[in-house]
Amino acid sequence: MAGDGGDLGDRAAVRAVERASYRLEGAAFETILADSGEKAIEVAEEHSVDVLLVDKNLPGIDGIETIRRLHQRDRNIEAVVITGYASIESVLAAIDLRAVDYLVKPLQSIDAIPAAVRRAARRRRRRLIADRMLDDLRREVHDRADDQDLTLLSDARERIERVYAALGRMRNVLFVGMSFDLGGGPRRLRDAGFTLYRTESGEEALAQCAAGAANVVIVADEGGDMSGLTFFDRLAELDGCPEAIFVTGARRLQSAIDALNRGASGYLITPLKDEAMLVRTVEQACRDHHERLYHYTLVSELNRMLTVLGDREVHGSARDRVAAALNVFDSRAASVAVVMYASARRGASEWNP
């Protein structure tokens, strides 16, 4: 946790940080306090840091720059920003840095902090655990298993590699309710190898997303049959949903915060000052979606292996560690997503802007 909270006053800031720390420790998190961004970076050099809860306004380097520098050391550190002085520029910077939440003081409830940190920790675990556990199980089986189990692992590895190869060919972008002029941005996306689809209907777009038709969905804040934020809420209910980018023609701070806290991969304000920005934002969102599908594939294969291996004692500790690690995943959602994108169907017509 990095916090100064000068906007609260020194004593109030200290009390606020202490309350947050106590609440997090009560939720089974281990906390380390830092009174500046520089100190947070020092802490990260000495300790393994999963989540950074950082005040935007810090002495020295600010919270956004602290996140940026920590990501240079470990891109998997997740961040939650908290501030009493929100600005649309800082929200956009937080989205660009893949922050999980942007909390504005005064908070309606102190429980918002452990809830945000829990979401951040879950996202980090998704990135790290599947790879580690697959390696763990592979080493254990290679050391102690029979030929049948080696064949099992070999088959799983081939399936994972096929999925990984197929992901590189999945570059589908769905535009929803677009009432804004993105200039030549969509044409640049098509030239970059993306396949584009477009619909005015949010309901139709949700059906397409549920069928695995898009890796990235670009949503207008207005237009069509539902608002952009309503679409975000509905999209989050889908298993294995695509990454989503929010597009608006107005610089509204609250809508930017709402989009970030709903998991937006990007937030674009039109008219675009730089059409290449759309391509960069979509490229990153597509990579994030591919990464998530890859991890879901690993989770599905680990579940399959555990089922086959059953309770054989020879696999003891490794099986238990993998089983425990899988508890942080929504294994059902992972399995649904893998099948969904493997058999993706597209009812929308391809868009050639």
Biggest β-sheet description: 5 strands, parallel
CATH first level of the largest domain = Alpha Beta
Q: Between the first and last Cα atoms, what is the distance in angstroms? A: 46 Å
Number of DSSP strand runs = 8
Strand fraction: 5-15%
Number of DSSP helical runs: 13
Q: Would you identify the CATH H-level superfamily of the largest domain?
A: Response regulator
- Estimate nothing, just give the exact number of structural domains: 2
Radius of gyration: 22 Å
Task: Provide the helix percentage.
Answer: 40-55%
Q: Helix/strand/pairing class, anyone?
A: alpha/beta
What is the CATH architecture term of the largest domain? 3-Layer(aba) Sandwich
- Average pLDDT, to the nearest integer? 81
What is the CATH third-level topology name of the largest domain?
Answer: Rossmann fold
Can you characterise this structure?
The chain is an alpha/beta fold and 353 residues long. The chain is built from 13 helices and 8 strands. The chain has helices at residues 10-26, 37-46, 63-73, 88-96, 112-144, 147-167, 185-191, 202-210, 228-235, 253-261, 275-309, 316-326, 331-342; strands at residues 51-55, 78-83, 101-104, 172-176, 195-199, 216-220, 243-248, 266-269. Strands 5-4-6-7-8 form a 5-stranded parallel beta sheet, sandwiched between helices. A 3-stranded parallel beta sheet has the order 1-2-3. Helix 4 (88-96) packs parallel to helix 10, helix 11 (275-309) crosses helix 12 and helix 11 (275-309) packs across helix 13 (331-342). The longest helix is centred in the C-terminal third of the chain and has 35 residues, at 275-309. It starts with 9 loop residues before the first helix and ends in an 11-residue tail after the last helix.
